[in-house]
Amino acid sequence: MQQSNRSSQRSSRLVGQYALVTGAPQGIGRAIAIRFAEEGATVAINYIGSRATAEDTLARVRSASVERGHGEKDHFIVHADIGSEAAITEMFETVLARWPRLDCLVNNAGFQKESPSEALDVETYRRIIEVNLTGAVLCAQRALAHFVSRGGGGNIINCSSVHQVVPKPGYLAYSISKGGMASLTRTLALEFAGRGIRVNAVGPGAIDTPINAAWTGDPTRRAAVESHIPLGRVGTAEEIAGVFAFLASNEASYITGQTIYACGGLTLFGEFRENWAS
Q: What CA–CA distance (Å, rounded) separates 86 from 8?
């Protein structure tokens, strides 16, 4: 009975919330959109690229609402390149024209590309920074303006990475973007705390998503990755989505300016499990 009650309570934590999730057609973004719908939120799914993939996620989000007893809600997809200021402005205009308000912004859009730092293409660098960091800043700016104008607070959750604190050689632009995400999260959290607006981040580790398919589907490469993870396995997108749902809920009402690392212990520096340094 207690387990059933906890499950029921969890499934209703986000009832009444309107949430925009950027970069949500697949991977962690898709899992977040579905989890938010399961817990009662109305979700806008931002995408770039395949509309069919976004429509598939939308169908799953709608099903999640109905299956969990929340009924049909005004979930929808919205196309926007998060590396474009004009597209971000149009996206927020669309969302705020359709819904009575926005309660939660999830800055999830991002990508990475490997390149030796001494030969990093400047245009690639700029594109990664534009999407991963500048895009998050601009989305946060639009959300904050709305939160302040309507009053009553609001919530921003940034999808960062363990590489916010763990260097990632060969991925300089990505590492810089996630390091910047830490400052973005903490600065906005401090600036807007007095107005009831919370800003936090989640730092995933090695997660089984389509972006990592090159190694998650290769037993040898997967084992090599898992050998560095204290918990001994890669994570799932659904596990990460659960952390976002917690931060979006009132259960996290006294948490702001924090990054929660959902990484299986990667940020514990597992190579030090044995005391070889002293």
A: 41
Give which of 109, 113, 164 is closest to 137, Cα–Cα: 109
Q: How many CB atoms lie within 10 A of CB 163?
A: 21
Give the separation between CA 223 and CA 215, rounded to whole angstroms.
9
171 is catalytic: no
pTM: 0.93
Digit-coded pLDDT (tens) for 102-158: 999 999 999 988 888 998 899 999 999 999 999 999 999 999 999 999 999 999 999
The amino acid at 11: S
Task: Give residue 11's pLDDT band: very low, low, confident or very high (50, 70, 90).
Answer: confident
Enumerate domains of the chain plus CATH numbers.
2-266 (3.40.50.720)
Alpha carbon distance 172, 72 (integer Å): 43
Long-range contact list for 62-69, CB < 8 A, 24+ apart?
A: 62/37, 64/34, 64/37, 64/38, 65/37, 65/38, 65/40, 67/38, 68/11, 68/37, 68/38, 68/39, 68/40, 69/11
Catalytic residue, candidates 47, 125, 171, 174: 174
Q: Residue 81, Cβ neighbours under 10 Å: how many? A: 18
**What letter would DSSP give residue 131?**
I
